[in-house]
Amino acid sequence: EQAPTGFKPDFLWGGATAANQLEGGWNLDGKGLTTAEVVKKATDRKVFSMSDVSKESIKEAIADKSDTNYPKRRGVDFYHHYKEDIALFAEMGFKSYRMSIAWPRIFPNGDDAEPNEKGLAFYDDVFDELAKYDIEPVVTLSHYEMPLHLTQKQNGWASRSTIDDFLKYTETVFKRYRDKVHYWLTFNEINSTTFGFIGSGSVDTDLSTTDEKLQLRYQALHHQFVASALAVKQGHEINSEFEIGSMLARTQTYPATPNPEDVRAAQDADQANLFYTDVQVRGEYPEYMNRFFNEHYIVLQMAPDDEQILREGKVDFLSFSYYMSTVTSNQPAGDDSVGNMTFGEKNPYLETSDWGWQIDPIGLRISLNTLWDRYRVPLFIVENGLGAVDQISEDGQIHDQYRIDYLRKHIEQMAEAVKDGVDLMGYTMWGPIDIISASTSEMSKRYGFIYVDQDDEGNGTLKRLKKDSFNWYKKVIASNGIDL
Ligand code: BG6
What we know:
Elements: E1 12-16, H1 19-22, H2 55-63, H3 78-92, E2 96-100, H4 103-106, H5 117-132, E3 136-142, H6 148-154, H7 161-176, E4 183-187, H8 197-200, H9 210-238, E5 243-249, E6 252-255, H10 260-282, H11 288-295, H12 306-312, E7 317-321, E8 325-328, E9 337-339, E10 342-343, H13 361-375, E11 379-383, H14 401-420, E12 424-430, E13 450-452, E14 464-466, H15 468-478
Parallel strand pairs: 1-2, 1-12, 2-3, 3-4, 4-5, 5-7, 6-8, 7-11, 11-12
Antiparallel strand pairs: 9-10, 13-14
Bound molecules: 6-O-phosphono-beta-D-glucopyranose.
The site of 6-O-phosphono-beta-D-glucopyranose has 14 residues, from loops.
């Protein structure tokens, strides 16, 4: 078949957010605490702090009833501003909006006998509002916001019984929103689970060795793989039209030199990234992981049916986030963090964001081709964007040309990948409205087309303001990606 020359007519242009960074209303209408709401704001903007949660820090967080040290509790108050915010998305011409449901709004403790009707009603209102403007919701079922109670009771995903709690929640929302939501994602950046607390909801700071931590994290991940596969099956039984995808934090890596040792190290790093989608798209654990498991003394506890469950619960499409690329060397200079869950060396050919993330639009084209070649399922870019400090100019406007440049270059490469023959469903850039950063909980790390008047301490009117990029994106969508 001839490769298409442009984006499909029904290409899903839009933006993406997560409940815990956006909604606020953390203790309203029966909602329980999420795991994200006990992660303290980082003291250093380059540090990925979402793994450093201990039993003590959770106790401290629960005793603290304010949002001062826990900005994800306040978000940007979408809970009360959703009509205004969705109207702004509609003004830009959004075809889709990726959002997550905060699981503890529906089941405050995760193991409650009945769902919380007020939580369900809130998302009904949000979906109805989106429907008014023909914006298709793309719903992440779990985006770093498990009910905290499940951590306290059974150490989160480390426990197999969390699968049942999750499936009760997914059944509830699949049924409730059967006719309102068509696209679902199971776990946001499922690879985050092997980086610790924020993905696994499991405390492991009390374990002394790395291998012990890895044992716990890969077991937690296995439970998520099973839960995801069962949710895919459950969703299709509830509505055979549902399209349910997986979600990976894609890290494109390059060998530091043509030395075969570096090339092999980069291949290894790439497999370590693609392992997750190998399981979720192909429906089985890849052989290369056996070696990794052996070398780290990891023994996965599997129930007799698990392999069959994985085979029967393959996802319909693969979605991923893409922010940066990295470099892999056989002799790493140091454990250099270059982004969320991304480690590696500096690339002399690339510029970085103020947070040290290496900006690489061509890497997006490379990743799209790699994923398409390997899996042959539709792809969906559900996060991409630039975190930057925005200033309000004397004219009262925000001239964020740097953001426009970043997005334009990535969309250009996306168009190239489509010409290469990649089947691409859509593009929901990250954070169309400024929200709290996942990694550092800063407000000043902004991604949006829409500015929100709030500072890192939570001061501000929460007033929404259009940046220059707002009208630019509107034009991009109106021209289906031609007018960049
Ligand atoms: C991804 C997450 O890792 O990157 C989002 O799925 C997150 O939740 C995004 O916000 C950008 O990261 P940060 O740390 O700049 O907010």
